[in-house]
């Protein structure tokens, strides 16, 4: 699982009519869904939203009133933040705080920019490693890099989950780091 820092109020989790998690939207967007009866609020966040005519508790989780068929995004986009999140912001070689992205098999030697070949690394390890492979240096990777999988990743990406969403997202998935 990515990171579990609580970021209350950062958004609302949208569930399908079947309670399956779909995506995260802004609190404002979730409130519009509720006010237009396209969704019902399942869990409140903190605070009250005021509109011209009504007041509504800040929605934290909403459920669509009608089932929507959603084509699954099976591929998690490879971004710097997503790599850091997958690897828990730790260097894949020394477990220190990561600041850079390292290509395990160096790009200069044909290494691919793909989930299986990128890891978070500290600046020192990255610099020392240069264009060598871990094997050439006698280094071991803390874990074999792989593309992240699971509902939480599909819905959240690199976003930190709100603790109030835990009942709907399986946040106990094994760490992909
Ligand atoms: Zn390091």
UniProtKB/TrEMBL annotation:
InterPro entries, per the entry: HNH_5, HNH_nuc, NA-targeting_endonuclease
Question: Does this UniProt record's set of keywords contain Nuclease?
Answer: yes
Residue spans crossing the bilayer:
none
Which superkingdom, per the lineage?
Bacteria
Give the organism, scientific name. Micromonospora fluostatini
Going by the UniProt record, its keywords in alphabetical order are: Endonuclease, Hydrolase, Nuclease
Q: Does the keyword Nuclease apply?
A: yes
Domain (HNH nuclease) ranges: 78-127
Instruction: Extract one GO molecular function annotation from the record.
Output: endonuclease activity
- Name by which UniProt lists this protein: HNH endonuclease
């Amino acid at each position: 699982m990515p990171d579990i820092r609580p970021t209350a109020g950062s958004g609302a989790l949208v569930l399908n009519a079947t309670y399956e998690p779909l995506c995260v939207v802004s609190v404002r967007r979730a409130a519009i869904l509720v006010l237009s009866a396209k969704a019902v609020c399942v869990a409140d966040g903190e605070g009250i939203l005021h509109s011209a005519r009504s007041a509504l508790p800040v929605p934290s989780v909403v459920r669509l009133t009608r089932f929507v068929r959603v084509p699954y995004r099976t591929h998690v986009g490879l971004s710097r933040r997503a790599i850091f999140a997958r690897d828990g912001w730790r260097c894949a070689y020394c477990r220190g705080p990561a600041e850079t992205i390292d290509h395990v098999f160096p790009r200069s030697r044909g290494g691919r920019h793909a989930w299986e070949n990128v890891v978070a690394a500290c600046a020192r390890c990255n610099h020392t490693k240069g264009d060598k492979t871990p094997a050439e240096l006698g280094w071991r990777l803390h874990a074999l890099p792989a593309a992240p999988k699971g509902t939480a990743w599909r819905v959240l990406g690199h976003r930190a989950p709100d603790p109030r969403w835990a009942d709907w997202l399986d946040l106990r998935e094994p760490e992909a780091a």
